[in-house]
Request: fold
Amino acid sequence: MSGHSKWSTIKHKKAKTDAQRGKLFSKIAKEIMMAAKLGGGDPEMNPRLRLALQKAKEANMPNDNVQRAIIKGTGGGDDTNLNEITYEGYAQDGVAILIETLTDNVNRTVSNLRGILNKGGGNMVEKGSVSYLFHTKGLFLFDETNDSDQIMDIAVEKGAEDVDLKDDNSLEITCKLSDFEQLKTAFETNGLTYTTATITKIPSTTITVNEITGEKIINLIESIENDDDVQEVHSNFEIN
Reply:
């Protein structure tokens, strides 16, 4: 199982705990605000906002929280001065890490992330050092309760790039960014319930690490994700 696949699963399981603590709601609210600020408050006209609202739905985020975030983003509430910045780093064994943030204090974010990386055995690097290893893709995860044959048929018909059937009959599907919306619509029209539908960064190559190193990298990534300014973390490792 690739590092991306493994980390996708970890993030999905971890999200349930985050939602209980309220941390995930805060991160999603930031994304909704930024999406609304850049593209307006109408999800029909704003694909990024539409995706953020999908994340809010998956996390069972209260509608009042969602509406407040949209209002803030469109300038109808308290002023928000969020900056969207991606940072790059390395973990153990040269594993690449891409960190997407939304922050109102760049100096704080840089200092925090550098400290977390150094403490966890990694280091921050200059822009462009690892980002070329990742490509933006659409990602769908389905659990074993769905009809895998039907999902695969629709995925192939609608232009999915990769369909990965796991040993437990769960499915991971990746597609080009341009095909994401039509795949999402096709799944929903046919009554297929995905666990996750998102836009993410997928590595072009992976680095294989042993189980001990893999646990260290997972712990480092979890520490990075716990920072309030961090939205997403992507890496390119797989565990042997």
Q: What stands out?
A: The first strand starts at residue 83 and ends at 90. The chain has a mean pLDDT of 88.
